[in-house]
Amino acid sequence: MATSETHDTNHDHDHGHGGHGAHHVDPLWLYLGVFGGLLVMTVVTVGASYLDFGAANTAIAVLIASVKAFLVAFFFMHLRHDKPFHSLVLVSGLLFLSFLFLFTLSDNGTRNDVDDMHGKPVPKAAPKLASSPLRETNAPRPSRGVAFCRGLSILPLPCCKENHG
Amino acid sequence: MSSTTAEGHEQEGHGGHGHHGPSFLAHHFDTPEQQFESAKLGMWVFLVTEILMFGGLFAAYIFFQGVKPELFIEAHHHLNKIQGGTNTIFLLTSSLTIALAVRSSQLGKRSHATAHLVATLLFACGFLVIKYFEYSHKIHDGLLPGPAFCNPQAVELAADAACKTMSKDSHVFFSLYFMMTGLHGIHVVIGMGLITWVLLRNLKGEFSSEFYTPIEIVGLYWHLVDLIWIYLFPLLYLIT
């Protein structure tokens, strides 16, 4: 609770409001300025989508979106004046979200590297499809998960071949 | 905690145990400040669960986009950048107006808060109207999720329906499109209900510069709806 006491004291001291219940009121120009920034970045992100930066296009779009999200959270959602604990709640949520994304991506990137029936690495000589992180292997695959695959006929997994024929 | 409580009572000149506070102060809180902070913390925890719920769909997007990037590029050409961009601007503007509604409440300007809340509702309606035209267009072209994609049993297909020239795997993109924008759309509708609720309470004069917690909390919810769309727009409409 030491943090909250310090914060309360600072709050009252810095802004000169008497007692509790008085909250910091941001000036109108700040809201309009942030809104202007959000509009400009929307135009920039649409414009950038017409240019070809190769693989960086998605990264640029997500980066711009993240700057916009930060502006909304920091100014419109008042994290600027809030107890740091509210920001910690948000950041911890985003941390676990990043775990979800990272493990999904690592699954995507390493699938079929190992023969899951024999636990041995798939020979490097196996042809790899450059366009897809999911690679077909020459080794015969078990029929495990066929039902799951039927719903995911997009995946070029050998067990899904009946859907591609 | 006890020292904070004591400090609060001292500053407000209360000698009792929270029974003499203003009418909006619930009996289980010591000070209005504590009540306000508790409400906000609870809302932030809820917003994080919302982010994680949408996160599952974003993870699915990342997975399938990694599997078939070319399919996503082909399919996204059937989304209208102008409509998506207009909706982005509508939501950003509604985020501004609800932030200004909170600000007006902080300053005790009740009629200004009412005007800002009504403006927020109007932009939200505009968003849904455009969404309606987008969805109608997709359905007309047979661009539907899963087994309904280009399926004459699901929807009557015109001879030149757009889906007929597309890869049969495109249903994956439209499954993600309808799930993500649909879940977001449900949030927009719920948000409009919440805004209407605080609007009515504001008209009844229940809020003041001392107590505007519901407007602040609904504002946080509405900003989250905006935040989700900030990511949905480039990921669905602006793929290259």
Please provide a written account of the structure:
The complex is a heterodimer of chains A (165) and B (240). Chain A is mainly alpha-helical and 165 residues long. Chain A is 53% helix and 2% strand. Chain A has 2 domains: 2-110, no CATH class; 127-165, no CATH class. In chain A, strands 1-2 form a two-stranded antiparallel ribbon. In chain A, α2 runs antiparallel to α3 (56-76). Chain A is flat and about 65 Å long. Residues 1-21, 126-147 and 160-165 of chain A have low confidence and may be disordered. Chain B has 2 domains: 1-30; 32-237, Four Helix Bundle (Hemerythrin (Met), subunit A) (Up-down Bundle). Chain B has helices at 2-12, 32-67, 69-76, 81-106, 110-140, 171-203, 213-237. In chain B, α2 (32-67) packs antiparallel against α6, α4 (81-106) packs antiparallel against α5 and α4 (81-106) runs antiparallel to α7. The longest helix of chain B has 36 residues, at 32-67.
Give a short overview.
The complex is a heterodimer of chains A (165) and B (240). By secondary structure, chain A is mainly α.
Any chance you could write out the topology, listing elements then pairs?
The complex is a heterodimer of chains A (165) and B (240).
Chain A: H1 2-15, H2 28-48, H3 56-76, H4 84-110, E1 114-115, E2 120-121, H5 146-150
Antiparallel strand pairs in A: 1-2
Helix pairs in contact in A: 2-3
Chain B: H1 2-12, H2 32-67, H3 69-76, H4 81-106, H5 110-140, H6 171-203, H7 213-237
Helix pairs in contact in B: 2-3, 2-6, 2-7, 4-5, 4-7, 5-6, 6-7
